[in-house]
Amino acid sequence: MTATDTTSRAAEDGRTMAGEGTAHGRSVRRLHLGARALGRRRPTGDARDERPVLPRFPRPARLFGYALVAGLALLYLLPFLLQISNSFKTEADAAADPLALWPSTPTTITYERLFGLGGEADSVPFPRWLANSALVTVLITAGRVLFDSMAGYALARLRFPGRAVLAGFVLAVMAVPGVVLLIPRFLVLNSFGMFDTYSGMVVPLLVDAAGIFIMKQFFETVPRELEEAARIDGAGVLRTFWSVVLPMARPALITLTILSFQGSWNEFTHFLVATQSEQYETLTTGLARFVSGGLGGGSQFPLKLAAAVLSTVPVAVLFFFFQRHFIRGANAGAVKE
Amino acid sequence: MRRRGTVHGRERLWGWLFVSPMAVVLGLFLALPVFMAIWVSLLDWNGQSNPFTGGEADFVGLDNYRALLTQDGLDRTLFATSLRNNAYYVLLAVPLATSAGLLLALVVNQRLLKGRGLARTTFYFPSVTSSIAVATVFLFLFQGSGAVNSLLSWVGVEGPNWLNDPRGVTWVLLGGLGLVDPDQPSASLAAHDFLGLPLTEWLAGPSVALLTLVLMATWTTSGTFMLIFLAALQNIPRELEEAAALDGVGRRRMLWHVILPSIRPVVFLVLTLAMIGSWQVFDMVYVMGQGSPANTTLTPAFLSYSSAFDSADFGQGAAVAFLLFAIILTLVLLQRWLLRERGPGRDRLRNRGRRGTSERSRA
Predict the structure, then answer these.
(1) What's the alpha-carbon Rg for chain B, to the nearest Å?
(2) Tens of pLDDT along A225-272?
(3) Exposed/middle/buried for B31, CB within 10 Å: 0-12, 13-18, 19+?
(4) How sure is the predictor about A148, in pLDDT bands with cuts at 50, 70 and 90?
């Protein structure tokens, strides 16, 4: 399969490309070099040659190039800047001058209203959305980190009948278009009596095929000698996994944690079909209903934008601190869709 | 020392214990649902009661599919409209997002560009944020009197009422050139129809509102594609580029004859991913109008959802989902076949790339 082959190679490179600076990056790289030294992979880990192959662009072209990059960067940033600035505007101000990056009369009323401090009764139960999002995200992330790494380890290292079939099953599951599962998921949840409950929101997402794939790939690069040494010292399978292999997998576990957090925090369609009552609304389903339904009356855009800002903040913070893990995920997860 | 047999026995037990949560969850919530939905697509079922123990569900065979494909009526018109919309969406969004991703990757891969890490972060950030939050922002930016139209007014352009404009761009453009009357494009075309939708409607092109969705999709997905392309670009053996440079190959020929052929499989991968994703567009549609204006942003994915959950016709919704599945599958296979590797020239380049990598690993 060329597609998988390419992606795993891409994932490999994303890993090294991302490992810049920081103690962690270096430990990832060292680990991979170790794995490669054992003859598993060709060395992409060597410091990339930074010399350009072709001569530099002439000066006018270089200036044009920088202008192009700056223009593109503005195009990708401007929506976020406008989102933030307009969330601090009054409704009249946002309607009159949506492009102003600095509000004429800055106000935090939208944020106060979201947390019920504005004094008026509000139709937006924002704290509830936030609590629900936090709860399901923590549960789903914990489940994925544990179950994905267990499954990944078993598929990579343990010999048991049916392993090949299961590995094929994981790959096949990744190929099912998510949209086909919209109604079926509801059907299953309904039959099990899990519709409109927290368990219905969490359990189906506790495992994800892409995460298993990431962990399996990682465990395959861990030198077998380590496990054999642990076995000789009398450690069983569970102990070898828990005390020897899992600690080594820290870089992969961090990636998986971050990707799972981001994925479940931003999850929308599953929660939409798994729930019905307002009490189970998350930031995504609550915001979506508020935004798509509230167009008739006052537009309330500053309020909507403020809710969108707040729902972006956790992922944004995570992204800026752990970029290279996202980058690795983008390449590893390319098999996912 | 333990005997080998016992070690194996243990591995067998632990292996199954380790995979059982995964097997149970993926089996119950991914594999089983597909089969249940096939059954439901053959039923007339309103979502109440349990369709698997009899109850109020009637077995109607292929009626749901017939209503979508062969019987005149609202079902078929809606389905055809959603297909038309999504086809135009795919035709625009896939090339746009792929080429934008490639352009960004080529830019941030320039070894001498200062701040390329920062640029990479900037371009990728939209891809990690929630689609709902992004859609909220785009709704705000593209209002009639919103930021985008304010920007356009600076250059003297009066922008349309983006999200409320159901006009198809074909007739808007041809009408602007004075070639056709946008309100009455052609009587002979209107007289013929395909899947219950007049040819004028099929040819109308994407509506202005759908264009807004295309722009948003390009903006949110190009960062991911950039990263995939970037990984591929950095995988090109340096020797290959150096050899070409020694032969006096200029930038343009380097791009067309060295770089693009070496990342061909990845271009193919990105095109496939983009196409699969584009046929499933749902979140954006839900937030930005739920099909309005005049059903011109209705997509099969959203139609499937709304048939089931808004109109309580789960059989119909499941049938739409399976037809969509079939479309995606067919197009992936078609794309594979169209873009399959052929011709001696490409093979030679590819092999040269391979040889380059294996030499490096030996060194």
Answers:
(1) 26
(2) 888 888 888 888 888 899 889 998 998 999 899 999 999 999 999 999
(3) middle
(4) very high
- Candidates B323, B283, B322; CA nearest to B302 is B283
Closest CB to A86: pick one of B19, B129, B140: B140
Of A162, A173, A178, the CB nearest to B280: A178
Choose among B140, B234, B287: nearest Cβ to A288.
B287
Question: In one letter, which amino acid is A61?
Answer: A
What is the chain A residue with the closest CA to B22?
Answer: A207
Interval B207-233: pLDDT, tens:
889 999 999 999 999 999 999 999 899
Taking chain B, what is the end-to-end CA distance rounded to the nearest angstrom?
41
Measure CA A296 to chain center.
Answer: 34
Q: E-assigned strands of chain B?
A: 43-44, 58-59, 193-194, 197-198
Q: How far apart are CA A186 and CA B218, in angstroms?
A: 30
Residue whose structure tokens are 């098999």 = A335
Interface contact B141-A182, CB threshold 8 A: no
The span from the CA of A258 to the CA of B181, in Å, is: 54
DSSP one-letter code for A203:
G
A308 contacts A283 by C-beta, under 8 angstroms: no
Contact B190, B198 (CB under 8 A): yes
Q: CA-to-CA distance for B360 and B363, rounded, in angstroms? A: 5
Comparing CA positions, the residue from A135, A143, A136 lying closest to residue A208 is A143
- Is there a contact between B228 and A187 if contact means CB atoms under 8 Å apart? no
What is the enclosing helix (H) or strand (E) of B323? helix B314-338
Pair A303, A234: CB distance under 8 Å:
no
Tens-place pLDDT, residues B284-305: 999 988 888 888 899 999 999 9
Mutate to test the interface with A, among B1, B25, B128 (most CBs of A within 10 A): B128
What tens digit of pLDDT does each residue of B161-209 get? 888 888 878 787 887 777 777 666 666 777 777 877 887 778 778 888 9
Q: Averaged over B36-55, what is the pLDDT?
A: 74
